[in-house]
Amino acid sequence: MAEFIILGAGMVGIGAALALQARGHAVTLIDRGAPGAETSHGNAGVIQTEAVEPYAMPRDLATLAAYATGRSNDVLWHLGATLRMAPALARYFHNSAPARHRAIGQNYARLVGRATADHAPLIAASGSEALIRRTGLGELYRDARRFEAAARHAARMAADYGVPSDLISGADLAAAEPALRPGAVHGMVHWTSSWSCADPGALTRAYADLFAARGGRVLRGEALSLRQGATGWQVDGAEGVIEGSDVVIALGPWSPDLLARLGYRLPMIWKRGYHGRYETRMSLQRPYLDAANGYVMSSMARGLRITTGAELTGRQAPQNLRQLTRARAAAGELIEVGAPVADGVWHGHRPCLPGMVPMVGAVPGTRGLWLNTGHGHQGFTLGPTTGHLLAEIVEGRADALTEASAVRLGRR
Q: How far apart are CA 318 and CA 268, in angstroms?
């Protein structure tokens, strides 16, 4: 058995650590901070079994014009950052063409379709059932035309992938969800098989604790210090050098930085997302996506969380609360939103690849170097699943799914 170092203690890294550990490998999990402290903490907390197709870039002129002029709250862009990401964005746009997107979706759906089944034993073993709601995800629509289009999409998801959903009228939803203002919603697509979490950071930490209880090591260290040693790989830890025969880069949006030091180029689109937390006396039954306004609202352990769409900006750029401010105002039209919680604003970056599917597998040409990154919006959903996939690849699995997720990097 190998001695693996996993770099990155978010849901993706912890999922890989647990899967490799379960197959008898010695595993050390390394991060500069505590497990689950970054993007795995700040997301909407949904295990999205309905997201069987990766998010495509719109190709119709009306939507693109809304993005370009800032009328849509789904995307906020900045010229300098967008130009720097332009080659990757162009490839993403190319892959969003209907035929290519459908082909990519066939393999992506095989990953997402496993998500709840792969989370379930970890939830049980980590004692985290109290954090999980199996009440689905609601997509809210404010007018008949968009609701009818959403209903057609839901029917296609059922026909093509077997994804279950219900269509709920606004009146029936208002009766079932008293927190919603009467008449504010025309209808809802209820994705019934998705799960949600009251505290995604706590769930990630619980998985890390489970890994440690099973004999794994969780250490602080600096991923960018990674180097090849005489017999494997070395990383500088808080208490000395950490060594292993193999290393997995699971650093999400920071993966390209480390790969660049090793001589590789990984094009990536960084989609910044924000959340704000608000005091509230009510509790929503499930997370809700306000489709017209590009945000998700969910009752969580520490109040109402509102999570925004995508901002195309530099990773070191200052916060821009325009999307969150708009989302807060739109949510106020649907429910009573209380005062902001002190220090309740957070931001992080979603690591999106032009090929849309996470890269999972061996880095060609460098012995003992593995990659598990590029999960886009679905790191929280897919962490345990791509962890299993990586462990299976280590043991020799080769099929259409491993080919679709294979590591393909340029040289610097």
A: 20
